[in-house]
Amino acid sequence: MTRTTSRRPASWPVIAAVILAKSLVVSAQENQEKTTVLLKPGQNLQAIVEDAPEGTVFLFEPGLYRMQTIYPKSRQEFLGQEGVILNGAMELKSWSKASGLWRSEDLPPSLPFHGRCEAGRPLCTIREDLFFNGRLYQRVGSFEELGPGRWYQEGRRAYLSDDPIGQSVELGVTPRAFGGEAHDVVLKDLIVEKYASDSQQGAIFADNGYGWRISNVIARWNHGAGLSFGSNTRVTGGAFSHNGQIGMAGIGENSRIEGVEIAFNNYAGYDARWEAGGTKFWETRGLTVLDSCIHHNGGPGLWTDNDNIHVTYQGNKVFLNADDGIKHEISYDAIIRDNIVARNGTSAFDDWLWGAQILIQNSSNVKVYGNIVEVSDEFGNGIGVIHQDRGSGIYGAWIAANNVVHQNTIIHLGRRGRNGVVTDTGDSDFWATANNRFDDNSYVVADRDGAYWTAKGGEEPWGNLRDMGLERSGKLSEERRAPMTLSCGLE
What's the CATH code, domain 197-478? Predict the structure, then answer.
């Protein structure tokens, strides 16, 4: 997935001419020709954008665009190609040596930050990351902790024990690559990397925009989120990987994520129960995540949290994330269907029904069907419904009610993991009134006498479920299987 060439291909004039010809079309809405502008490395891109009218098409010449931030106007398009990289880091070229350490001075003032770190990673929220020959170095909190692959900052000085002379040393300092409130912006075929984005904000920061179209964009090695978006966004193709907090976050109505890879996020060590991992979406309506691959993130894979409604997760592969695979929390109507969700919960925080492959948490009217779920023999749970006292939101109470889990295939590779419903409210009426149903699922288990289910407060074997009104049409088979082989591109 890495694209590093900065040479202009011999065919570039032809490519540019073809794109220019296609761009010079009459808009039915505006009844005017689009203006096309060629961008080159070293130019002040924001100044060029400000001087151009709405609807301008910008073509990036291949190369490295360092420390640029663009606030588009509405309907502007930003089209890249192989070798176009927007890089938010400054180069640290001046080094001196004293007392066995290398020192670079006159760093910019530190950026403001917020968030919550996991245990043992107290510096996670600090946004400036250092890259040595493209490799992320670990930030430490004292001179004593310095060593190979580490760096330390005191005031406006950076310190290394590794010799930086003749090497590429970069420091992420630019908060974002794109931002603003414009509508109908197009980003295509770009790499966005090494921006000092804040937690809960993207290097591509389009929360306040509308109708953005983001196609085949790679956002990587940005400190907070790779992308954060607003209403009516379309994200197709590309990858949002190796970001410090989270791959992608979003808010608003009628957005669609399709064919995207989201992987290896949360390198900084944010607390995943605060917010970190693959994705987090809040207050969305009509969100669809389709045919995407979400894996190896340091937190949940797909996570809708807080007043989401009419959500669809369909056809995705979600595997080997540290927390829940797909989680729908304090939200409402959703469809989770035809996904492969496997071996999530790698952090082994899987007491109760946490660390589930699919988790409905204080949400109602969710239909879960047609999924293939695989539970590791070492960690994680299967499909779970959790009810707690969480209050209410804009569409009513946040309760686990009227959820239907049916026609899924649930594979337990060992004796580990549970499926079912749990509550800690002490409400004796919950079991009679909540109407959460598990039925017509197929279970493949390593031990047919194992307690792979939890219902009405206890762990249950298969033989007890029908008496409790569960899995009347369900099927059980005993078989030891090898883990599914799953991959998506990034390794």
Answer: 2.160.20
